Amino acid sequence: MTTALITGGAGFIAHHLIARILKQTDWNVVTLDRLDYSGNLNRLNDILLHGCTEEERKRVRVVFHDLKAELNPLVRKEIGQVDYVLHLAAGSHVDRSIEYPMEFVMDNVVGTCNILEFARSQDNLKRFLYFSTDEVFGPAPDGIKYQENDRYNSTNPYSASKAGGEELAVAYENTYGLPVYITHTMNVFGERQHPEKYIPLCIRRVRDGETVTIHSDPTRTVPGSRHYIHADDVASAVLFLADKKFVETTYGGAKCPKFNIVGSEELNNLELAQIIADAQGKELKYDLVDFHSSRPGHDLRYALDGTKMKELGWEPAKSVRERIAEVTTWTLNNERWL
């Protein structure tokens, strides 16, 4: 039986991936979690109790471990042999990384090295997937969408630590022949997201008749923009890549394949907030704020080029506008997640 180890399985994106694995495959799943600020076993509980059969629930096991420490023999025995390592665990809060950069070095660089070392010990590993971010490329000027192998320009400790982990994964491909794939994605949203994140925050503020803050340029006329993507679409892309074999040699012999997982449409944050307001049948109250000038490390625009995945045969299942409206309705019907 195929087994996938998913780090950060109680996290937001990873629990959507687990739900899709249980429905789309017959794999067993081992999640590795320390259950900190972002991890929440109630996410797993929700999908297992309300969306899975008894047989599907039996295929999931949770192992507790903090990746800042190496995986000792007892933890390794608890996990067992695995066929896939899908490394989604990470510190991801930009503000906190600016305040406490060393936390992010430990979680995203040291933690990645520890899970790479575990993966290197597996006898028949089919794939190690490192889940990276668009932010390693830095802000995107108008008209620019970064491709998979463009240069890095990290603008905060979070993105720098993700770039550091990414380079370690590349090194393990080059040095040890570990079968590594790297994905970049951006601004993932969906059911059961942490309420501090932008879309749940907008849903709550619109519901309560409060003003939504829209980050903008210094003139307070151009809102920031992103390619938003639903977590289930990200999960779909990860499984699409899992068994695909690609041989790439680019940029001086680099051979570790990289893939951008991109939403169907770029939206500025004002458009996004308006979709959320329309889904609730309410007026949008908003304030354009020059957040970047007062808080360096936050970028106005990120953009990735999704051409490669499209040419390989993968695209998001639905439009981002439809997904945002669906998530808004679901969240209002499940207000405990706000």
What's the quick description here?
With 338 residues, the protein is α/β, with parallel strands linked by helices. The protein has helices spanning 12-24, 41-51, 54-57, 73-79, 94-99, 101-120, 157-176, 198-207, 231-242, 269-280, 291-294, 307-312, 320-333; strands at residues 3-7, 28-33, 60-64, 84-87, 127-133, 180-185, 188-189, 212-215, 225-226, 229-230, 258-261, 267-268, 286-289. The relative contact order is 0.14.
Keywords, please?
338 residues; Rossmann fold; UDP-galactose 4-epimerase, domain 1; seven-stranded parallel β-sheet; two-stranded parallel sheet; 13 helices; 13 strands
Structure explained in plain terms:
With 338 residues, this protein is of the alpha/beta class. It has 2 domains: 3-188 and 227-261, Rossmann fold, CATH 3.40.50; 194-226 and 265-301 and 319-337, Alpha-Beta Complex (UDP-galactose 4-epimerase, domain 1), CATH 3.90.25.10. 41% of the residues lie in helices and 16% in strands. The relative contact order is 0.14.
